[in-house]
Queue: 4 jobs
Job 1
Amino acid sequence: MVNAALVLKHHGVRPTMHRLAVAKFILGSKEHPSAEQVWALVKAKFPAISRATVYSTLELFAEKGLVRRRIIKKGTAVYDPVMEPHHHLVEEATGRVYDIPWAAVRLPRRIVIPGFEVAEFHLVIKGKKKR
């Protein structure tokens, strides 16, 4: 169980009631929820929380290094609480996103593209479960 208040403080985020509600959901999740999904789930417990508060809280968490904002599924941004380098597999039938360990895929640790400074990369794999 994650102590959300301590994690927020450690990352320089003031632990308000709404930030704690978002943190308790996202930091303990194995999912890759969109901001809309986070808002719907947090709103169930805190009906007064606004969509804007959830969106700005998630962006603050991304800025402070608590989560990563990723475009994984059809142009929708999702928030990933796993900060270690890893890849993603999107199951085509359900849209569920799975974490794939970095070492499970052979890729260079660094990519060089002439004329660019690559800051970060990860692989998104799409597939179907075997029967």
Job 2
Amino acid sequence: MKKEFWLERWERAEIGFHQNDINPYLQQFWPTLKSAQGGEVFVPLCGKSLDMVWLREQGQSVLGVELSGIAVRDFFTEQGKSPTHTHTDKFECCEADGVRILCGDFFDLRKEDMANVNAVYDRASLVALPTDMRERYAHHLAEILPSGTQVLLVTFDYPQEEMPGPPFAVSVEEVRALYDQYAEIDLLKQVDILDREPRFKARGVTRMQENIFLLTLK
């Protein structure tokens, strides 16, 4: 999947993936992360997620990365913030009130960018990527994050042949295959969500689960 796909989605305001409420699994499980308190939380492919606002309200500083400048602009505008702007060779950095978003490509991130991160929240990143990119994503994430970082990961699982992604189906077995060499993996919860997702049901999906994981990097 090329960068242009996501840039065009934001340009056309086709952002059905954006949630207008705080994710309930974030609220339920975030307090259980041992490493989260007082550190910097990384939110990959963050869009304009309100979950970043909730994390900031818990006293966390937040670091996001987002390809679309429209998403970054809209986040700060909708929060009534005027961010500062700085530039590196790969990113435009926009920052206000403890939230810092790097506008650019996730795969350009380096260890130095993640130096203060000790927790990650991934609700919309792994599931946004097709099969051939997910292995690269998991490897890069593990490579740039400090040892001991904890990741709260939310995935969808459904018969992929019934609906083209995104969001893509990522099974429990695939999460274990992607991350087993990099992290301790705990499956926290599985929830059948098809009845509350009529848009997917209307597209012919016959089964859909959300799986919530806690990963602790080795």
Job 3
Amino acid sequence: MQVLLVHGLSRTPVSLMSLGWRLQTAGWSTAAFSYAAFFETFDQIAQRLRQQLDQVSQQGPYSVVAHSLGGLLLRAALGTDNVLPPAHTVMLGPPNQRPRLAPIAWQLPPFQWVTRQCGFNLTQLDFFEELPRLRSPYTIIAGVGGPTGWLSPFGDEANDGIVAIGETRMTEGDRPLEFPVMHTFMMNHPAVQSAVISAIHSSVLKL
């Protein structure tokens, strides 16, 4: 089985190299999808991802690991019957609901310049309402190492410093796996990597 890795906003495939190595040691081949929000719109990136998913699916069963915005791009790319869905998807810190920090970040010109349509979409409720849900099995991994309390923008809700645990849920029935990690580097934590491998392995056993 091949595992496609999709990085998060303002990151690169390098951010998932450690996880990719762990997946390879588990016996799977890996491929990376790369994008830059500064140069492409969300829709253009999703279309390219759809094309790569189609290519990967033609080689046999596959899985996807997507970090942060990568999970939303994946949902958009798979929102058509023309693409064979993955055997399993692991979403790392995905903002499946509008993150409360997005409207605040959007007020900062550097964030606007770097993230463009991708960043703007994160501020829009209708964007999330229209985003397709995954049609295949998935696992959500949420970080809970962020600050809480009256000085935190998250109040008492567990979070990873960027996304609250409630914001990672795609449906009310989702039960994210929780780890005491921060958003940006959660994919490097050994326990998170082991959870990713376990989730994908469970899908392999069902094939």
Job 4
Amino acid sequence: MAYTMDTTMGDILSNPEAVKVLDELMPGASTNPMMKMAKGFSLGKISKTPAAKVSVDQVQQLIDALNAKLG
């Protein structure tokens, strides 16, 4: 599976290996209480949501790391 800005957070959270990559880059992200609400959001939408406090660059780094390790 190729990860993109259209990938949902739910797709990442359902894959234990992807969760490891997420938590390596953003420690504690997978256990953040906001993740329950964000499961249906695409990575692109998350990067544009001010409350997420995650930049487009950070999301792109996550996508690149996921594709390098799991793609």
